[in-house]
Design a protein that fits this description.
The complex is a heterodimer of chains A (175) and B (363).
Chain A: H1 10-19, H2 26-39, H3 49-53, H4 56-59, H5 64-71, H6 76-83, H7 92-103, H8 113-124, H9 130-143, H10 154-161
Chain B: H1 6-9, H2 26-30, H3 33-44, H4 47-50, H5 66-106, H6 111-132, E1 135-140, E2 150-154, H7 160-166, E3 172-176, H8 180-192, E4 196-198, H9 205-218, E5 225-227, E6 238-241, E7 252-260, H10 276-284, E8 289-295, H11 307-322, E9 325-330, H12 341-359
Parallel strand pairs in B: 1-8, 2-5, 2-7, 3-4, 3-5, 6-9
Antiparallel strand pairs in B: 7-8
Helix pairs in contact in B: 5-6
The chains are: A mainly alpha (175), B alpha/beta (363).
């Protein structure tokens, strides 16, 4: 189970905890490290895309390719920071920021009509035509007071998603 | 460290869009949190990887009193038990080969006698193997009988499952062809009990194997056929989905449940981590291999039941008896990616939900 260098020092744990803004407890970080070593089968210090995709539950997720782009090649510290949005201690702001980053693939702080369309395509696959997707999206955008040419920023996302009772939490199993 | 979280095993597909009877709003399309949560959940912990986790060796030798005891244990296991076991195994092989080889060649014409002797000898060498790990096996239930039109299925933890079962009854088994000395044994000795080989890598192989299976069970004189429907070794805490091949042969299926007692040794063969030789050495330098074998009531396919439902029903019987948890994954996902239809099903559900809410009028 993992390689023999799976020993985290107290200093390492505290450093990781700093980096993720204390969204995980020290015990959770130790558990996450065991999991990281379990997934990082070749002991390279990071989890490759192949290793992520060998988890069937992850591979069947419609957004897995998108997430892979964000998580591929991260070392343990960055891995924990990536998952910090899913902690119960993360703020609503942090969670919405994460969702924004999933949409904003070119990281320019703006999400366009096409960016949302791309995510919608991942979620609907071949069960909706391109035309249908555009129609539905244009319709709900207009209803919310935006247009097809609007560029949504983080503030817009917070406004739209802020009160929707967003729940995005994952429990880290601790012994 | 056993991650026992009961609800994950019932793989309930969560909804990708908030279930609601309200009209569709922008926030419903932008809110991808359920899908993201599922993905993150899989990254943090997933039921498939758990099936193949070996027991981490608990270091119990951490204080002044226990450490010398542990050292003494190591000395006994490696210095006394291991040589004795190697000796026992060597004697067993000598007896076996000196009886098997003559019997195989000299009794060519007396097939019935030859088969009987070979069967007995294979059971004998398996008993020697089991003795070489100080195997304590408790068999429960009626011993398998030699009858046509029946097939035995068992859960799979290691290749030693076969040896443990074989020492009681000479089964013909269907196995993956291995390289090295194991392969040699397979092609010579196991051939005599009527084993069937398959090659996971070959796609056409499945039809050839299916035909061989059908031919085998028709034969009156053939040894009872043993199949491990999981198709891969699992860590004896879980069962993965059973392949339906054994359940569509139109014959009675007799389930066998095997449970190893982990206190003595972890008998799970993690073929990615160890070769079979290393695995055997690990067993031979442990204290004992203790397990229970239950021969369960033979099952027939019910009218209106599909082979897959039949397989699941038998998996349930075996899992309950051996105290194993069921997971909805195919064991072969160890070697390949899941089929796209799982993802497509999620996409389809999402689209249905969106279109349904689009129809709604109101705020």
């Amino acid at each position: 189970m993992g390689n023999t260098s799976s020993m985290l020092t107290q200093y390492d744990i505290e450093e990781v905890q700093e980096h993720c803004n204390h969204t995980f407890s020290q015990q959770e970080i130790v558990s996450l490290y065991q999991r990281f070593c379990q997934l990082d089968r070749n002991g390279a210090g990071f989890i490759s895309a192949e290793e992520f995709l060998s988890v069937p539950e992850f591979a069947v997720n419609p957004l897995c390719q998108r997430l892979l782009r964000m998580v591929d090649g991260l070392n343990f510290k960055e891995f924990v920071a990536f998952l910090s949005a899913f902690s119960s201690r993360a703020t609503m702001q942090q969670k919405i920021e994460f969702i924004f980053k999933v949409y904003d693939t070119d990281c320019n702080g703006k999400v366009a009509f096409n960016d949302i369309l791309d995510v919608l395509r991942d979620l609907t696959g071949s069960f909706m035509s391109e035309q249908q997707r555009q129609q539905v999206l244009a319709h709900v955008l207009e209803e919310a007071g935006y247009s097809k040419d609007s560029l949504l920023e983080l503030a817009d996302f917070i406004k739209i998603l802020g009160n929707s009772g967003l729940k995005m939490e994952v429990e880290v199993p601790v012994d | 460290m056993d991650l026992d979280r009961p609800n994950i095993e019932e793989y309930l597909p969560s909804e990708a869009i908030q279930e609601s009877n309200e009209k569709l709003h922008l926030r419903d399309l932008l809110d991808i949190s359920p899908t993201l949560t599922e993905a993150a959940g899989a990254i943090v912990d997933d039921s498939f990887t758990r099936c193949f986790k070996s027991n981490p060796s608990e270091p119990w030798n951490w204080n002044v009193y226990l450490f010398p005891l542990w050292c003494f244990g190591v000395v006994v296991r490696y210095g006394i038990l291991f040589p004795v076991r190697v000796l026992v195994l060597t004697i067993g092989w000598i007896i076996f080969l000196s009886s098997f080889i003559p019997a195989h060649f000299l009794l060519r014409s007396h097939d019935k006698w030859r088969k009987k002797i070979e069967r007995y000898l294979v059971e004998l060498i398996c008993s020697f193997f089991v003795a070489s790990w100080t195997g304590v096996v408790k068999y429960h239930g009626p011993r398998p009988s030699m009858r046509p039109k029946q097939v035995f299925v068992a859960n799979h933890t290691s290749m030693i499952d076969f040896i443990v079962l074989e020492q009681m009854t000479a089964f013909a088994v269907i196995m993956q062809k291995h390289p090295g000395w194991v392969g040699l044994l397979q092609s010579t000795i196991l051939e005599s009990v009527g084993c069937i080989w398959f090659n996971r890598a070959e796609a056409k192989d499945r039809e050839i194997v299916a035909r061989k299976l059908r031919d085998h069970i028709q034969g009156v004189d053939n040894n009872p056929l043993l199949i491990f429907p999981e198709g891969t070794c699992v860590n004896n805490h879980y069962t993965v989905m059973f392949k339906k091949g054994a359940f569509e042969l139109g014959c009675t299926v007799c389930p066998i449940a095997i449970k190893y007692n982990k206190i003595f040794v972890d008998a799970f063969w993690n073929s990615k981590k160890q070769s079979f030789t290393m695995h055997l050495l690990h067993l031979m330098t442990s204290w004992a291999v203790v397990c229970d074998v239950w021969y369960l009531e033979p099952q027939n396919i019910r009218p209106g039941e599909t082979p897959i439902e039949f397989a699941e029903r038998v998996r349930d019987i075996i899992s309950v008896r051996a105290g194993l948890k069921k997971v909805p994954w195919d064991g072969y996902l160890k070697y390949s990616r899941p089929s796209p239809k799982h993802r497509e099903r999620k996409q389809q559900r999402f689209v249905e939900s969106v279109l349904q809410r689009l129809e709604k009028k109101g705020k």
